[in-house]
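Hi R.,

Here's the chain you asked about this morning:
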Amino acid sequence: MPDLTSQEKTEALEKLETSLIILADTLTVPYVRVACLNQGSLEIIGTNPSQKNIPLSEGLLPSNNLFCKHVIQTGKFLKVSNAPKNIKWKNSTEVRKGITSYFGMPLFSQDGKVLGTFCIFDSKENDFSNDPLILQFKTLIEMHLVPLLKALETEENKQLDLVSLNRALENKRRKLSTLISNLPGIVYRCANDPNWTMEYINGDCFNLTGYHQGDIENNRKLSFADLIHPDDQGQVWEKVQKAIKNKSPFKLIYKIICKDGTEKWLWEQGRGVFSKEGNLIALEGFITDITEQKKNEMKLEKYRHHLESRVKERTTELEISTAQLKRSNEALNEFASIASHDLKEPLRKIVTFSLHIQSHSDQMDEKCNNYFDRIIKASERMGQFIDDLLEYSQVSSKSRPFHIVDLKSIIQDALIDLESRIHKTKAIIHISDIPPLEADGMQMKQLFQNLLSNSLKFSRKDRTPKIEIEALQNKEAMVEIVIKDNGIGFEQKYSTRIFKPFERLHGKSEYEGTGIGLALCKKIVERHLGNISINSSEGHGTSIQIKLPALQTCPPEEFEKAPGKTNLEVVTQSLAQPIKRASIYQINS
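And here is the predicted structure, written out as C-alpha cells:
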C-alpha cells in the first residue's frame, strides 16, 4: 500500500502539472503554480515548466513574497495588473525577477481552512479578464487535489487512513478523467520521435480518429504519425523541432486520415517538457477538430478567388469598352468637325451666290428678292444650328481642366458680349457677390451667356427687362446661383421638356434660336456634377436655380490650383464670407 500511495501521489502531481501547462498555454502566460501551507511556510507542489527566467519554480517561498502572503492572510483573491508601478507590490521577489502581473487565489478545504494558493503570473501587463476559465481550474484543483495537498502539507495528514486516501484519490482521478474525456479533443503526452509515440492520450480519441486510445498508446496498433496525412508530415515535424530548439510552444494545423478513410483537419497546441538540466523529457499538448471551420475557410477562399477573377474579367471588359468608347468619341468628334466644315461650306456658297444674285435686284421683282432674303436667313440659321450642335457634342470631349474661377468676373464678361442686346432692351441687371469655385472657366461663361441671352430674348415688350443674379448661402459645400427675370415666362409643366435638345416653346418666327441652348446648359452643369432647374409662370417671369460643387471630385490631373493656396483653402475662405449685393449692370443710351 505505501508504494501504491507514492505512485498515486506521483500520478496526481503529473496530472496537476499537465493541467497547469494547458492553463498557461490557453491563457498565454509564462508561469502558473500551486503551493500548499506546510508548517507555516508555502511549499510549491505544482507548476508549468517555465521556459523563461521566472524564479521560484520549486521549493519554499521566501518570507518577502508579498503576493502570496497577502492571499494567505486575507483569504481573498488578489489581482495586480502592473506591479512595478504599484508602490505596495514593487518590492516583491517576483517583480525583481521580471513579473509584471499577478492573480492569486486561496485554496480552501471543505471546512473553509486555507490550504494554499493558486497563482498566475505574467511578464507583461494583464488584467486576467478570463475569470471563468481560471475559476474552473481553481475549483478543479480544490475538488480533485485537496487530499493530495493535505497529504503533503503536514505530518498529521500523513497519518490519515491510507485506504481512504487511495479511495479519494481514485475518485478524484476518475472525475479528472471524466473532465478530460469531455473536452472537445484529446490531451496527450508523447515522445519526440518520428512515430510521435503516445505515452498518454485521453479525451475524445475515438470520435476524433476512429481509433481507441489503446490502439495508439505506445504504438500498439499504429502510431499517431501513421494518422497524419503524408502531405503534412514534413511540416509538422519541422515546426515541432523548431519549437523544441527555441523551447517555445508550438501551434499546428494539419490533416489526418481517420480509420474510415475520411480526412479531418486538426488544430494542435503543445510544448516540450524539459528537465532541470534542460533536456527534453516529452511533448504535451491538446488536439481538437477544426474540419468544419477549415471547410468554411476554403469555401470563402474559393469564393474570394472567384470574385477576384470576376472583378479582373469585368475590369478588363471595362478597360476594353473604355478604350473603344474613347476611340469612338475621338472618331465622332473628328466626324463632327469634318461634317460641320463640309456642311457649312455649301451653306456659305448658297449665301454667297444668293447675295451675288441679289446684287442684281434691279433685274428682279420684289417677290424674287423676298425669296432670296429667305434663302439667306435660312442658310444663316442652318449655320448657327450646325455650330450649336457641334458645341453640344463637344462639352465633355473638348473640355478644359478645372481650376479656381471668379464667377462674378465670368458673368460680367458674358454681359459684355451681350452689350448690344442689353443696350437695345435697356435691361437692368443686378449682380450679387458670387463665391469662386472649381470649374471650366470657358464653359461657365458659355453657361451664363446662354441663360442671360434667354432672359433678354424672352423679355416682355411692355416693361423694362430686369434680371437679378444672386448667390445663396449653402451649408453643403455647394455654390447656389439664382437668375431671376421678369420676362414672358412659360407654364411650369414644360420645365423639364425645355432642357431636351431641339425643344422650343415658341415658333421660329417669334423668337430666334436653334433649341439647343438650354440642353447645352444642362450638359455643362452635369459635367460639373451639379444640377439646374427652372421655376416659371406664364407672364410672370422665370427663375433658374443652379447648384455647383465648390470643389470638384475629379482626378487630380484635372485640377489647376490657385498660386500659393490649395483649391480647398480658396473655396473654404470664400464660402465663409457673407454674400452681399455688389453692383448693378446697366447700359444707358
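One quick note: The two ends are 132 Å apart (CA to CA).

Cheers,
M.
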